[in-house]
Amino acid sequence: MPTSGTPLRRGFYRVAIVEDHALQRERTEEVLHERAGVRVVARCEHLPQFVAWLERAPREERPHLLVLDLSVDRGPAVDPELVASLVRGGLRVLVLSAMASPALVRQVMRAGVAGFVGKRDPATDLVDAVHTVLSGGEWMTPDMANVIVNDPGRPALSDQEERALVLYASGLTLEAVAAGIGVKRDTAKKYIDVVKRKYAEAGRSVRSKTDLYRAAVADGYLDDAR
Q1: pLDDT tens figures, 89-124
Q2: Domain carrying residue 210
Q3: Cβ–Cβ under 8 Å, residues 126 and 117
Q4: Is residue 4 part of a domain?
Q5: Are the CB atoms for 53 and 42 separated by under 8 Å?
Q6: Among the three residues 149, 168, 194, which one is the final residue of a domain in this structure?
């Protein structure tokens, strides 16, 4: 795994930045150019602006990596499905964000993002993360893993409870949920009842299937398809 002490071939890799704060954008470009040894080819304030640029960019200017902030002060947050489409197109994505929304972090992680760096992390972490992701690896600090796993408003579900929630909140009947996870209907109902109880204990009432759907979307288990 490359580190900040063993830079990649200088100037070979192309990187784009999406960040709505000008000073942060300039500082990120400075670190990427001077310390990570990559070439910044695009600087955008939000993700749709980057996508518009990407559609008209010549092949020789298309980036290998996108360094992406998740939140925009004067606009909507990043759309995880848009991120997923970029990843499917072969673009590596590294999130550089304040991580104010654990649910959004989890959603973009499921979209295929390769790494996460917090804005409070040192510049060396950003450099190491860029090198790791460009080399095909993944990057996440223990603090970032803690943000994702230990959101106090997100109840801890077992694997079967999570699967039952996803299927049931997607609109399936209890019979279909049971078939999907390989258990009897009564067992599937018990899983859903436990999920409701755990959400109630976390201070979030989820009495109906619609409530469960909204909770599953908010917590990153489902994309909002409605």
Answers
A1: 999 999 998 866 777 887 888 889 999 998 889 999
A2: 159-218
A3: yes
A4: no
A5: yes
A6: 149
Task: For residues 85 and 31, state if they share a domain.
Answer: yes
- Domains of the chain: total: 2
Q: What digits encode the pLDDT tens for the residues 29-83?
A: 999 999 999 999 999 999 999 999 999 999 999 999 999 998 877 667 789 899 9
Contact call for residues 51 and 81 (beta carbons, < 8 A):
no
- Are the C-beta atoms of residues 67 and 130 closer than 8 Å to each other? yes
